[in-house]
Amino acid sequence: MTIPSDRTPDYRAAGKTLAADGFAKIDALLRADEVQRYAALYDRFLDRTIDAGHLRGDLGAQGDRDDDAVEAITQIMWPSHLIPVLLDAPAHRRCLALARQWMGDDMAMDFDMLIDKAPGTEAATPWHQDASYWPDLPDTRAVSFWIALDRATVDNGCMWFEAGSHEKGLQPHWQPNEDGGANECKGSEDAGVAVPLAPGSATAHLGMTKHYTRGNATDTHRRALIINFRPVAMIERERAQGFDHGLTVNERTVRSGEAR
Ligand SMILES: O=C(O)CCC(=O)C(=O)O
After folding, report:
1. In testing the pocket of ligand 1, which one of 95, 132, 146, 165 has its CB within 8 Å of the most ligand atoms?
2. CATH number of 12-240
3. What is the pLDDT of residue 65?
4. How far is the CA of 13 from the centre of ligand 1 (A)?
5. 184 has a pLDDT exceeding 70
C-alpha cells in the first residue's frame, strides 16, 4: 500500500505491537524543526492568542474557576477546526497514513485535541478507556496517537498503559468530579507500563486500552497533540447521532461497561 506521506516510515512492527498489547511506541514521528513549529503554535493556544472558546476546558475540573486561571489539565478540542492547515501538516498526515496501514484504507480522522499539563499541576488523568466517552459502535476499530511536543517523563505525565486491557471489554466508568472532567475506571500503576517519550515521538493506543498519566510535578509544560482515527462509516454514524467530540457542545458523558 502507498503511504500518502512525505515520510514513509516502516512502522509495521508498531502496528503488530498495537494489535497485541493495545498500545505501541512510535519513535521520531516528527523531526526537531517540526516539533518546534508545533510547539510555537501550541503556545498560541495556551496563551489564548488563538481563542478556542467553548473548545477549551479543564479535564481535571474541580468546580468554578476564573477564565484566566491555569487549568489543572488544559484540554483544547479540535485544534484542526480552529487552524485547518493542521490537517495537511506532518502530524496529521503521518498518523493518518499509519492508521490506514494498520487498520484499513477506510480510516479517517475523527477528532483531535491538545492536552497540556502546566508546571506544578499535580492532577493525574485517571485510568480510563477512551471508548467510555464514545457512543457504542458496531465497528470498534479506533486508534489514538499521543504525540509529545515536550520530553514526556514519568514525573511530568507521560502515558501509562495496561497491556492486554483492550481485550477485556469496556469496564465500569464514573466521573470523579461532579463538575465534569475526565472519566475514570479501576486501574493501577502496578499493572501498567510507563512510556516516556522524546519530543516528536508518540504512542498509539486502541479505544479499549486502559491508560492514565500522572500529574506534572516539574517546572516545565508537558504538551501533547492527540489525533484519533476510526472508519469513515463510524464517524458518519456518530455524527448522525449528534456526537462530534465537543465540536458543537463541550459536554462529556460516560458510557460505562456492564458492572462486573
Ligand atoms: O494527556 C493526558 O494526560 C491523557 C491523554 C489521554 O487520555 C488520551 O489521549 O486519550
Report:
1. 146
2. 2.60.120.620
3. 54
4. 23
5. yes
